[in-house]
Write a structure and sequence with these properties.
The structure is a homotetramer. By secondary structure, chain A is α+β, with helices and mostly antiparallel strands. Chain A contains 8 helices and 19 strands.
């Protein structure tokens, strides 16, 4: 119950279903005095909106965000910021082929078992559409973090077995191709692979990678709200994620201590690390290195091939999924990964403000 | 701040440092009426206690648990269960070589930056010793889950690049070898590998795998407290974890929808899945299949080689770590992974009790 | 920060300002399968809407609620229920006389000190209008509780020094007079008193009383989430409340143990209490008696007399408050007290479902 | 479930029963760098320890506190501070007269209904002894607040119908008499009244009052974590409290706006209030005035008169309570009220640190 709230100080509560009135989010705990407007938030939503290319669903949603509260004269007021995106494309459809059937790879069976009732229209609450609300909230977190010099670069690292070549990494390329990949050649190759999958009514998995620079040292609360623990939860709360790594990730399991330890050095009077196997986190606390994380997305479960499954009457049936589905989740999920990462960092950055008495005294002596 | 509490209904709060008075945990929200005694909890602690073999630290800790509250006449009373393990081996030592030095791969630098003060004795709060408290709490969760038929099998899947062979999987073998591996040959090979690392003053990473059977369908709260999200957080809160997977994990990212979807079938009147690529979770909710998860552990950062690093005065220095350190984290972490998994499941299982009004009416009509 | 969320399992998050786009609430954790519609919720909102009589502000707000999510085919689905009430009367006004002035008795000074920015239009977030969102959420809690036989009677007990006479208590009268008092004569007397206050540009305090029958025994979580503790918090979160009592309240402080203890008896095979000095709560847990609570409301701070105060430039100034203000808070607050009480009970009733293992087994054995 | 945790940032989790191994508390989220030692905490515990006078139970408990973690070289480290008080006087007793009987005015019936099992020895978890853990935690909060100039004066305002005379208020007198009253004459009169009650095997209620000076403006989080709402919860979580007031409290309900509003003024360049009917809180936020709160305590329910009640077999029985019981709760509760108030203020003071972006920038620019 009550699983739609995330965060301790920078806290969000999302709502909404794929084909209901709309979706939205209440952001509570955002500090007062940050300039926010709808255009700014919209620019993030546009990165995940449908209809961008042949690799994203053709659903015709403008995904226009509206600020309902918490912003006054262009600035956050410290009170809850309510954001909403009305559904415009939830035209009455024929759901008879899925309303009582459990689609393979989907949450239908779980929802019915759990709640005894399910809004089957377009996946209802379990639709990926729910993540638009997170992106809207994440945009505010990203704005807040920008004042502290924290910046994000997020992209698709691999599609199926096609990986980017880091020697060809071009940050500007990310926003230029349809797959949000930083390597033009890999993007083209992946595009051709996806076209072949569309033809065979299939779909592909992918890996999304994020780098974050400028993170203050000291973020993350031992022992259960470690920075990596909170990030793992945040990223795994995105539908279709099946794996998560920080820094060297699973490769570290095959490594030796003498290789994996990052030596500390002094550079320009600051403590730095020579290497970054840790991915910017040691002992659950940001260590001054760049944060590096990866999320493995499974292939879109909605494929157009005929599939064998069961219905809610306990009968085995065939199903042919119709509608508008992406052959790959990851490109539109790039900005979702970025948003969830920013929400975690914003929350832990605020929590860290009171880690030592000196900080508290600093606040109140000047009040 | 305040990061040492975990869970919503089945909630734990841990405390303690490696070389202080002791460590402990308060378990709040455990239902009343469950038989618990110290011997039972001790049996779990013994699986992670030091000194089990040449591959675990020789620190001489009995790790004896004492129940301080919450159990009356052999049963839980519904009030907080306080468990504590006094430190017996924190004999005064010479910490002069590490008290002002930041050990590579450790949280020392992060703690100092964050708090401005650090209990440097044996790692203080960031010591792996802290996980003993989680194991004690987890034992209670496992007991509760056993009444519902939920069972765990947890083991080391790989050491460095040495993996188990599933065709030789022998559950009984897990408790027989020093590395908690279910494949005798792999365990022997891994043992020889670790001996060579000890000789070269090095350490190894590893992967721990867990299978859980008997999980009720419907556990996990959309959208932020999904079963996999909560598990990811729980496992990543264990020190040294750098990667986490459910089911096919990263392999799913290279897969196709037609391969990755698990077809539903009816078997003995029950909905079952033909395959289990999902690892028992769909849309963040348990799907009736076995839960399968994996955690990648980095190599123990405390190695005996001379390392270059910095101290808290901003100087570059050499460090030679002394003391008693495991050449591999994973074998003793097996029971920690099991404990954290059980804590998450216990919490979500209780939360799920009120997912539908029918359940609520069932409780109160019979009260 | 983040103070707009209330509850653990039955959780609400409210948003909105008096003269912004609107106000709303997200209800998360409501069990699935409860019939809810807008007309039902509206009937509660109508009890607090403006313009009901000469004793309530003439602001012309329809306060029409819209269900944005979480209800499908007329029933709750277990996912977040988003409710919103758009502002229709926030016509551009001249706020120049209050925008930089701290109204006595109001939160203006506190908000400015805390946030450095304040939506001054109609009180912004600190307006009593915010409670409409709570009433909408509370209506759902009341619906849920009705299935368990829990019922509420809430009314104004006193206006200024005019108290109801319990010998003339008439439950039906409550909804018949403008002041929601259960004693017609007292209501008429109070009405005349309020008319005189309106004439003298003044306002009155009042006491609201609530009785709740049918509460299951055992609600309330020792030691910090006691039923009375949670109620005290809930009622004191309503603006203008300055006092709170359970049962005999402050009278108990002048009493003796031999008078205050309620003897237990057996009646029809059930444990009952002979008297109810406790107000239905012992040791923080519902004891089977009727829940009785009282809230003291201060007089409306917005009075039309000229008042001396300061502005945000640090100058002393005179202020004459304009606009539409109730000469008494309590009548419209009656339903707010009822809503907040219901939200607490709903939350603790769900929490209590897992207090003993027998309950948990009952749920899962029948799943 | 899980009701033994309190607070968001400055968080405490208590455990323990009256006659078990001991009681304790884990304080998590206390900023690092605050000097704390056992003697300091002990001085607060001594104010509530048994055996101080003929008006407190003769139970022979030293109530010696031990710091188990979280303090290193005399200072808090930012990690959980575990405090424990072992029970020394829980000598095996004959509980046969109460083990299956529900004492009037006690939580026995509620606990049995809720949990199905109850540690009946001395009240178990529902014993007032549990509050010693809160006092220990509160001492740390008070220490933290002292650095910001926040100070507390807490005392018994009335015993039965005997009230202090404010014209004779003497702060130093509080610690000199056995009843912690600031008026010597009233204390003597109350003492004689209590002696008469002891003779008639009866007990008395009382009112405790607290004043807190030096509170920064701006504490309290709208709308559910208002300062007064959190205080109401905190104080009502203390056993035997039946009423709570801020400032004028219930008197405000009989007042007029023109009397109740506190005019703002400028004094020495600071915004101040001419009067303090508000008790230091407006709109849930500290307003710069002294915080004034009152708690009504019911008479001790354990009286030595023969009482009629029921047992857990559903039979009506007579009970004569034995043991060691205070004829009045309030004197020993004075320090508990102070501790709970300080815990709330400490928590909200930390939360307020991030209310505006300027504060956040202040922290990180200097880090």
């Amino acid at each position: 119950m009550a699983g739609s709230t995330f965060g301790t100080l920078f806290k969000i509560s999302t709502w909404g279903e794929s084909h209901g009135e709309g979706i939205g989010v209440v952001v509570d705990g955002c500090p007062a005095g940050i300039p926010i407007d709808e255009d700014y938030i919209q620019s993030f939503l546009d990165r995940r909106k449908p209809g961008q290319s042949e690799f994203t669903t053709m659903r015709n949603e403008a995904d226009k965000v509206k600020i309902m509260s918490g912003v006054f004269e262009g600035k956050t007021t410290g009170t809850p910021i309510s954001l909403q995106i009305l559904n415009t494309s939830q035209i009455s459809k024929d759901y008879s082929n899925i309303m009582d059937v459990y689609r393979p790879g989907h949450a239908d069976f779980g929802f019915d078992s759990k709640f005894g009732i399910r809004d089957y229209r377009g996946g209802g609450r379990s639709s990926g559409r729910e993540t638009a609300a997170r992106v809207a909230a994440g945009a505010i977190a990203i704005k807040m973090l920008s004042y502290l010099g924290v910046e994000f670069t997020t992209y698709v690292k691999s599609v199926g077995e096609i990986e980017i070549d880091y020697s060809k990494f071009d940050k500007d390329e990310i926003m230029r191709n349809k797959l949000y990949m930083p390597d033009k050649e890999a993007a083209e190759k992946a595009g051709r692979y996806l076209e072949s999958l569309i033809e065979s009514k299939d779909s592909s998995g992918a890996v999304v990678e994020l780098k974050c620079t400028g993170l203050p040292v000291g973020l993350g609360e031992p022992v259960f709200e470690k920075l990596d623990a909170r990030l793992a939860e945040a990223i795994f709360s995105i539908g279709a994620v099946k794996g998560f790594e920080i820094g060297d990730g699973f490769k570290a399991a095959a490594s030796k201590g003498s290789e994996n330890n990052d030596p500390f050095r002094i550079k320009d009077g600051k403590v730095v690390k020579e290497t970054n196997h840790s991915g910017g986190i040691l002992g659950g606390i940001s260590d001054g290195g760049d944060l590096v994380l990866r999320a493995a997305f499974k292939p879109t479960p909605s494929i157009y091939q005929k599939q064998h499954t069961v219905n809610n009457k306990g009968e085995e049936v065939d199903i042919e999924i119709k509608g508008r589905h992406d052959p790959i989740v990851a490109p539109r999920a790039v900005v979702v990964v970025e948003a969830m990462t920013a929400l975690v960092i914003a929350d832990l950055l605020l929590q860290n403000c009171t880690s030592k008495m000196d900080n508290v005294l600093k606040i109140y002596s000047c009040n």
